[in-house]
Amino acid sequence: MLKFRIIAHTNFGEQIGICGSTKAFGNWDWKKCLMLKTDGNSFPLWYTDRALDFFGAEAVEYKYLKVRDDGSMDWENMGGANRFVPADALKGRGIGTPSVIILDDGGFGYIQPVPKAVFEASAEYPEEAIEKLYRFPAGSHEPSGPSGLKIAIIGSSVAAGYDAWLRKGWVFSFARDVRKKFGHHVINVSQSGANVRTTRDRFVSVISPVKPDVVIIALSLGNEGIAHCDPHHRPACQRAFEVGVEELVRMTKKEGAVPVLGGVYPNGSYTKDHRSFVLSTQKKMQEMGAAFYFDWLGGLDRGDGKWKVGINFDDAHPNSEGHRLMFEQIPLQEFNDAIQSACLEANTPTIRAKKEQRRKQVADTKPSPEKGKGIVTANGGHTRKPAPTRPPQVARQVSPATPKSEIVSEISSPRLPPVTRPRSISHVPPKQGDKDAKGNPLLVDSTRRLSLGGGRQGGGGGARERAQTDVQVAEGVTPSTSALSATSELQSKQALPLGPVDGQLEKERGGGSSQGPTATPTSTSAPEELPAAVRFVDASGFFTVSGFPSDRLVVVENRSQHTYAVHPAWKELQRAFVAGFERMPAGLYIRPEAEPAFVEGGGETGSSSSSSGSSSFGGDFGKPVCFSVNEKGELASEAKIPPLSVSRFEFGEKFYGQCAEILFFDGKLGILREKDGSVRVINEAESEYNIQPMWKEVQGCMAGVPEGVYEDSEYVHMENSEAPQFSTLFIDKDGLQSRVKAPPHSCRVYTRVSDLHDRSRCVIIPLGDRCSARMLLHKLEWDGPCFPFDLTRTTQLSDIADMIRCDFWGMVDPESLWYDWEHGRYRHTKWTGLSFAHEVEEGEDPSNEEDQKKIFQRMESRYTSRIARFWYAVHCSDEVLFLRTGSSTREEVENLIEVFGEKCSASRRVRLMLISGQEDSVFEGIPGVVHFNHVFDPDRMAAEKGHWEWETKNFEGMMKVAKLTTRNLYWTPNKPPGGRGTGREIYLRLASATDLSRRLGRDV
Fold it and tell me: Which DSSP helix (H) or strand (E) runs through 943?
């Protein structure tokens, strides 16, 4: 029994019919066609309301048509191929299947190369039963045969069989054949619409109960949104997918199963640019450590990222033919060989069960005497039943110095090293020829270490001392001679001390004369519990670096009372990284916790809590400390390690998989929205990133972040005057509205501290007389898009007051402008002190009518935008600081203040800062006016870089007097919402404040 449905957009008076080769379809007589139905809830879906029985028919072909009330009609795909019902569907109901099949014919006018159908739900077969029928078509839920394994498939709609005939996609064929050939059982837990995030969230709940031996991860790069997002957002989508898949691989291994990856595949919306992302992702997936990779791209892609002709149902999904090709791309024998070997090595659940079963079978085959009697001898006598014996064990030689925790860790150790407080033990620095507790030799090198200023060791604070550094290299890892020779010697005048930063280790050894508490070194369980690629121990034995490649983790222990600097110039530490950390992936390693774990011991400070440790020793607390490792395995940046602490540095890529959303990624800079609402900025580049609203892609990516003020977590409790510049994010409905800096090899976390309206922000608007203010704001990096007077010359303050009073009407009116050939600038006939010097571009002639027309059009466009910003800033900021350089009279200033009162809201604080060579007394007593007796010369600043920088320092001091920092600076958007039209129109629109109040959620 068959039903039919199709999506068709119709106009009033049109209906959809189906006409074909059977009587039910009118035998190709369109006047006898079967009319379909629709309703308000279903449109544009048209469908047959009753099931049709074609049992016994040899073939059924048909087409849809539009029938109008006036008796006219239109065939779909006139002259092209007909639709058809597959022969299997004409044989009647299969055993154990629903009675009605619905043919989903897609859209009107496009005839699918291969039909698609689904079962109709009924009382006998509800949706749950049909879904189970789709997912478990292979019969028994347990593996069969001596080599059978349990395979779980977790993926998206393609893995769930969508758009194939009766959902019999590549998984159906795969499950059927691997059971028939190898005895494997396949369980499909795929979910339509799944991406890496949703799959990770449900992974444990659907995989753990199954206890599979193999997990096939078959997700779509297209489900991350890469097909339809803006081009600048594609790297972020790719990063999210790759990191998510890699995390799923690790989760599979933690479940005790073997991971297999389903590869990338085409999409009808992909372009050649998309294909470059697909190819790079394919390469990355092949290096993720999976036991096998299904390479689908070569058999499905036509060369530009799109599906080959005739194998897809829509842009995102293959049809039955496409699913068949996907299945044929899987070499089943190679796949089976790979997973059998990997499962044996991983000792997966089925392998363990079969081993246990064989062990029991062997035990059952041994002769067992009758209960209560001895063993019957050959001559019929009895002997005493022997006592049970244990299998032989190799006893471990335990030395008195072996920590008990190390012995226990060999019996049962957690996967990741804990950072809880361990008990204190005595410590003996290693010597040449020593071995660790596991028998690995310690490589001891004689090195030089910088002695720090202020100490009493040797002859003085600046002397060098002879020391030893111990590098324990894991089995199979040998130091590279070339790498060792390439490492530069530590210079005696190194600016940043290496090793302990704030004291000498003679105190810990008992040989120092300085007073103060002495640290008792404490053991941590981190290095002994996982196979590290390398173990570095400094000469004192108090500082240890251990790397764990499988977990992409570096654990740094500082058991001294002094801050250590992990720095590229520390020669022996660098050599350890180059020689032994070659298995660690290159990139940024980040300590995720706000503070490290503190170890016990060490007198007064050593036994204190982490909070007291912070106050006693200082250091980088309250922020994610990080360091970078380059492609050569070398340290590329530094990190400070607090005293008496254990710091766990996780590979930076992990944070992309753990966050709530990747907002932006360009290959080096990542902006992440964390699950707790904070914003994390990761810069893996060797250069600083300037993140600001003029960067359109970055500004827009934060539009979905909750509005508010976000402070760098390191400085969140500092006063405005104490906090560093560019450490505050202002985010509104349009996205980023402030500037922050991302230093090289850094990770910053910005925490939301308040609503936007709780922070009073001040905008700086220059009022001439020349471009000095613009130059100084630019050097200070406080500049944004231009205001009307930034690049003009306005010698008379009265002209400025008049322009503001009349809403800049006529400022760039061509009828009021004339070109001054002597000085090379346009001048204004009404405001004689106003002139424009930067409007004529190279190659243009102001006397040429066509050139002059282009100049005036450009000026109108520029100054309309600048005027829009002016009024937007005045009406949207909390405070306004107008900045004027050059001489003025008291009367001009008082007149300007009067204009401010007319044009600016009374709820806003308006100030005027005057900077000129005049005496302060000239403007004394004018409310809201501050004057600095100083002259900025823009010509000299442009000619002399040093003078420009010196004047910028002076200007910065003036801003401090005005109590302005980047924490309360208002950044005007480049294109203000609603900022179109003439200056007067913009002012009137913003002054009404109706739309503005709604946007800001408060009165303006």
Answer: helix 938-943
Phi, psi of 492 (to 5 degrees): -65, -25
Could you report the per-residue pLDDT of 328-354, keeping only the tens digit for each?
A: 999 999 999 999 999 999 999 999 998
Amino acid at 469: T
Give the residue-averaged pLDDT of 188-201.
94
Whether the per-residue pLDDT at 464 is higher than 70: the answer is no
Contact of 245 with 203, CB cutoff 8 Å: no
Q: What is the pLDDT of residues 786-835, one digit of tens each?
A: 999 999 999 999 999 999 999 999 999 999 999 999 999 999 999 999 99
Strand 879-885 and strand 292-294: pairing?
unpaired
Q: What per-residue confidence (pLDDT) applies to 360?
A: 86
- Spatial CB neighbours of 97, under 8 Å, sequence gap ≥ 6: 119, 125, 133
Neighbours of 523 (CB within 10 A): 21
| CA–CA gap between residue 731 and residue 702 (Å, rounded) | 7
Chain length of the chain:
1004
What value does the CA radius of gyration of the chain take, rounded to a whole number of Å?
Answer: 38
Separation CA 796–CA 200 (nearest Å): 66
Amino acid at 366: K
Element spanning 915, H or E:
strand 909-916
In order of 3, 35, 45, 118, the CA distances from 104 in angstroms are 9, 16, 10, 8
pLDDT, one tens digit per residue, over 40-56 is 999 999 999 999 998 87
Phi, psi at 635, each rounded to 5°:
-65, 130
Cα 607 from Cα 644, distance rounded (Å): 9
Helical H segments across 160-265, by residue range: 170-182, 196-207, 234-254
Residue 540: the pLDDT is 84
Q: Could you tell me if 514 and 461 are in contact, meaning their C-beta atoms sit under 8 angstroms apart? A: no
CB-based burial of residue 895 (10 Å sphere; 0-12 exposed, 13-18 middle, 19+ buried)? middle
- Give percent above pLDDT 70 in the chain: 76
Q: Which two structure tokens, joined as six digits, stand for 816? A: 């009021």
CA atoms within 13 A on the CB side of 456: 7
In tens, the pLDDT along 273-327 reads 999 999 999 999 999 999 999 999 999 999 999 999 999 999 999 999 999 999 9
394 alpha carbon, distance to own chain's centre: 49
Helix (H, G, I), strand (E, B) or coil at 456: coil
pTM of the model: 0.74
Other CB atoms closer than 10 Å to residue 729's CB: what's the count? 24
CA–CA separation, 434 and 105 (whole Å): 76
SS (H, E, C) 623-641: CCCEEEECCCCCECCCEEE
How high is the pLDDT of residue 147?
Answer: 85
What DSSP element (H or E) covers 720?
none
Enumerate domains of the chain plus CATH numbers.
2-119 (2.60.40.10), 127-352 (3.40.50.1110), 439-509+517-656 (no CATH), 663-757 (2.60.40.1180), 762-790+860-997 (no CATH)
Bridge partners, 5 (sequence order): 47, 104
Name the residue among 631, 604, 442 with its Cα closest to residue 539.
442
- Please tell me the predicted confidence (pLDDT) of residue 439: 52
For the residues 780-785, what does the mean pLDDT come to?
A: 93
What is the C-alpha separation between 427 and 422, in angstroms, rounded? 14
Amino acid at 843: G
Q: Nearest-CA neighbor of 6 among 77, 107, 115?
A: 107
**DSSP tally for the chain: helices H, then strands E:** 25, 45
Residues 6+ apart with CB under 8 A from 11: none
pLDDT confidence band for 623 (50 / 70 / 90) = low
- pLDDT, one tens digit per residue, over 219-265 is 999 999 999 999 999 999 999 999 999 999 999 999 999 999 999 99
Q: How far apart are CA 933 and CA 472, in angstroms?
A: 66
> pLDDT at position 576, please?
83
